[in-house]
């Protein structure tokens, strides 16, 4: 049937089809659920009853007034701090493995392998590493004559940093590969010219490497911030929010509110607040990074 139409009409049909199909999918699986989430955030709904009681902004007031809900964001701070360290290490290894290092392909593979592992498997793996009595980390520290009875997952003061360090091990190789791709796009002639002019290694990194990978740094910081605010799998599997809720993240609190306490209205409001905070933080980050780029 299409063969009977003119080329111009066929072209328009194909273009409209390619536009409409992803647009329908986007509206169905992204924008409609988001609007429904916002609508539910103004109700008191248990997830089962056909009736939804309209409560206005009461759920949002509860989010900001209850320190057990909004205060959980402080637990996510550790993931952001470790995420910054993760990016610094990723740049460091990317620069080293972009040089003429013998066996660099093996080391690239070695650093990237943790990223392809399943998150739950990684959590169980580090459960044995951080075990207080028979954990490999404490056994290693004991062999060096250092204190070997540290409760890495049982201390409220640093349990989040312990959990965040797992993310550093898992995602650093992924960030390194992204930085490595950016470094390989920089022409080698620039470095050769800088060497002829007597530039040191630090000067090459500061005035050539950093400006050329600035946008990639912005991208990885975007991933770091969103990952720090939305972390869930590692603390859920290893500590389930313990000890005494010290490692509970905001996403875990949302899931607990919805599926354990059947308060879908409050959970929806918490999800909207998380979305707004993510957008706000990323907007601030983008503003300062673009300002620095100028």
From TrEMBL:
UniProt entry keywords in alphabetical sequence: Cell membrane, Membrane, Transmembrane, Transmembrane helix, Transport
Q: Write the lineage as a comma-separated list.
A: Bacteria, Bacillati, Bacillota, Bacilli, Bacillales
Q: Topologically, how does it sit relative to the membrane? A: Multi-pass membrane protein
Give any Gene Ontology cellular component. Answer: plasma membrane
Q: What's one Pfam family the UniProt record gives for this protein? A: BPD_transp_1
Similarity remark: Belongs to the binding-protein-dependent transport system permease family.
Record InterPro entries: ABC_transporter_permease (IPR051393), MetI-like (IPR000515), MetI-like_sf (IPR035906)
Q: Residues in domain ABC transmembrane type-1?
A: 76-285
Q: What is its main location?
A: membrane
Q: Which SUPFAM superfamilies does the UniProt record give?
A: MetI-like
Residues folding into a coiled coil are none
Write down the PROSITE patterns for this protein, in alphabetical order.
ABC_TM1 (PS50928)
Where is this chain's protein located in or outside the cell? Cell membrane
Give GO BP annotations, semicolon-separated: transmembrane transport
CDD domains (alphabetical):
TM_PBP2
Instruction: Spell out where the chain crosses the membrane.
Output: 12-32, 77-97, 109-130, 213-232, 266-289
Record's protein name: Sugar ABC transporter permease
